[in-house]
Amino acid sequence: MDLSLLSGVFASPWDIFRNLLDIFIVAYVIYRLLGLIQGTRAVQLLKGLMILLVFSVAASYMQLDMLNWLLEKLWIFFAIALPIVFQPELRRLLEQLGKGSFFKSSSTDVDPQDYQVIIKEITDAVGILSRNRVGALIVIARETGIEEYLESGITVDSLVSSGLLINTFVPNTPLHDGALVIRDGRIYKAACVLPLSNDPQLPPQLGTRHRAGLGITEVSDALAIIVSEETGSVSLGRDRKLIRYLDAQSLRELLEKELINDDVKPTLWRRWSRG
Ligand SMILES: Nc1ncnc2c1ncn2[C@@H]1O[C@H](COP(=O)(O)OP(=O)(O)OP(=O)(O)O)[C@@H](O)[C@H]1O
């Protein structure tokens, strides 16, 4: 067997180090890029492009000239269309590079003890909102980037307190419409417009607040707590499903399970097990 090729790659310890470093950097950049687009519509586009790439390679290998010609034209079209379609993701990537956050860990490093406090503040607020039949939609962002849905919102950037949560949803105040988003253990934004779910199985009496709460769990791993203005009932949106009619204790237990107990699992495992 001719090992000259390998000897070319591993000529010296410095070459080994250089190649390993090269592989590591490329793998890391791909990992972060995938993390950046995970849960966004860019994933579907990427899958489409992968399929097209497979077709292109197969067509060229089998010398299917007409198909090759067509696919070549399609690639030119995509080269022009992609920067336009991926504009939000590209902008976010450049922003992150500019801020230096691209190279920071993507996991939300919220201490379990801090989450205990946050969960208490949320459940206290939800209890009061529910008893007073004040409609509310609280989203807890986790690892999936949902920035593209938050651009419409108003930045709050405050500690999570039940008082502020309640105040935000008081009818006819500037921030009461839309969703409040908690990210990295802080109230990040209010009055956000979320994507609406088209789930046909959702009971017809549930309107846009519930559809928005469910919608964000369809495009990300975020949790959504919904308080109905009509009935005062509390629901939790998680993994494309709504868990309805929660009392304070079951809401607290579910949040603890999702935010504290689940957090001990490694990040990649959690993503994998969520599919
Ligand atoms: N896309 C959206 N993103 C975030 N919030 C939304 C969105 N669409 C509607 N909402 C919120 O939902 C409110 C309307 O709720 P609607 O009555 O349609 O929903 P519902 O699910 O029946 O809830 P409720 O039981 O509280 O009436 C709006 O005032 C707004 O605050």
- The tally of domains stands at 2
DSSP, total strands: 7
Query: How much of the residues is beta strand, in percent?
Result: 5-15%
Output the radius of gyration.
23 Å
Broad structural category: alpha+beta
End-to-end C-alpha gap = 42 Å
Unique ligands: adenosine-5'-triphosphate
Elements, N to C (H/E): HHHHHHEHEHEEHEEEHH
Give the biggest beta sheet. 7 strands, mixed
What is the residue-mean pLDDT, rounded to a whole number? 84
Name of the top-level CATH class of the largest domain: Alpha Beta
| Large-scale geometry | globular
Classified in CATH, the superfamily of the largest domain is: DNA integrity scanning protein, DisA, N-terminal domain
Brief characterization of the structure:
This is Diadenylate cyclase. The protein is an alpha+beta fold. It has eleven helices and seven strands.
